[in-house]
Amino acid sequence: MKILRPKPFYFDSGPTAVLLLHSFSGTSNDMRLLGRFLERNSYSAYAPMFAGHGTAEPLDILELGSPEKWWQQTQKAIQFLQEQQKTQIYVFGLSLGAIFATKALEEVPDIIGGGVFGSPLGSTGYHGIKEAFLTYAKKVYSIQQDLTEIEIDSKIRVVSSKIDAKLTEIRKTSVGVTNQLAEIKRPYFIGQGTNDKLVNPDAALEVAKDVKTSQLHLYNAGHVLTINRAHSQLESDVLKFLENN
User: Where is the Serine aminopeptidase S33 domain (predicted)?
Assistant: First the structure.
């Protein structure tokens, strides 16, 4: 069984561009529905792929990726859009991507506005994210038909032994970004599922208090708002945000 690897996408559809940053166990595919929606509404959309993601080896995320690399990639993605002569750039991030989208709003003056979906900012525990990543890893390994159950279990043990250190790195970066939230003066969209099991939904309320320019949108849905039952409403809300800011 051949697995098609996800690829970054760039939909060139107008002078205003939206940078879309994916999640910890996700890929650019998680942003494709939103990207196509934006394209249909004359916005350019760019979803790069974070280092270590989109491969058949979940360990790549833990061994090849890091908050430092992912932040560098975010900056390069913004530079790419500037080189494409985009006059206005917005940045949105899902889960892990939310950290770097917010960091960009804090530190990159050329960004017009942006926001987050299922953001871990302000959440105290990452247990749900760890369990979700282990589930994701097992699913990826199970698709590889040449692996036995014993081999899969062995690989999962390796992933489990390394994930805590990576989550600690991410958490450290997240805390640093959270501490600077009050610095955001540009329009800030917060999309949060009230049934989110990976991050604490209540944290979004606290973030909204810290960012005076924030617009909070709550959805009766789980974590991955860009593809779950809330995606159509989210797309509509993001479009209104872009049109009004």
Answer: 17-221
